[in-house]
Amino acid sequence: QVQLVESGGGLVQAGGSLRLSCAASGFSFSNHNMGWFRQRPGKEREFVAAISWSGLNTYYADSIKGRFTISEDDAKNTLYLQIDSLKPEDTAIYYCAGDYHSTWPPRNCDYWGQGTQVTVSS
């Protein structure tokens, strides 16, 4: 039973920070590239950030302007996304995903979480 369960979302004022978590189970977390995606209101799901299975490589969407940091803890099978200097346009459902080395950065991933809502007020 593959599961990716996001948490850590919520309501935050512009300029604040959040740390999202994704607890993974049912697959070999340490052997998969992992990523974060988001779906903003009225838009399709988009890529945000990725980390390679080894943890040695990361990749970020240009749109986030260096405000996001992806990391993982293999011992805990947990993926993280630190978001700083939040803006109202960051309001979205954030999803974590796992991919068995299909592409770099990952796009159409093998496993997806249910998402966690981030709402940024102005």
What do you see in this structure?
With 122 residues, this protein is an all-beta fold. It is 0% helix and 50% strand. The strands form two sheets. Strands 2, 4, 5, 6, 9, 10 and 11 form a seven-stranded mixed beta sheet that branches. A four-stranded antiparallel beta sheet has the order 1-3-8-7, with no helix packed on it.
Nutshell version of this structure?
By secondary structure, the protein is mostly beta strands. 0% of the residues lie in helices and 50% in strands.
Topology readout:
Blueprint: E1 3-7, E2 10-13, E3 18-25, E4 33-39, E5 46-51, E6 58-60, E7 68-73, E8 78-83, E9 92-99, E10 111-112, E11 116-121
Parallel strand pairs: 2-11
Antiparallel strand pairs: 1-3, 3-8, 4-5, 4-9, 5-6, 7-8, 9-10, 9-11
Descriptors for this entry?
7-stranded mixed sheet, mainly beta, 122 residues
Strand residue content: over 45%
Radius of gyration: 13 Å
End-to-end distance: 40 Å
Order of helices and strands: EEEEEEEEEEE
Sequence stretches where pLDDT stays below 50 over 5 or more residues: none
Instruction: Specify the number of helices.
Output: 0
Mean pLDDT: 97
User: How would you sum up the global shape?
Assistant: globular
Number of strand segments: 11
- By helix and strand content, what is the structural category? mainly beta
- Residues in helix, %: under 10%
What can be said about the biggest beta sheet? 7 strands, mixed
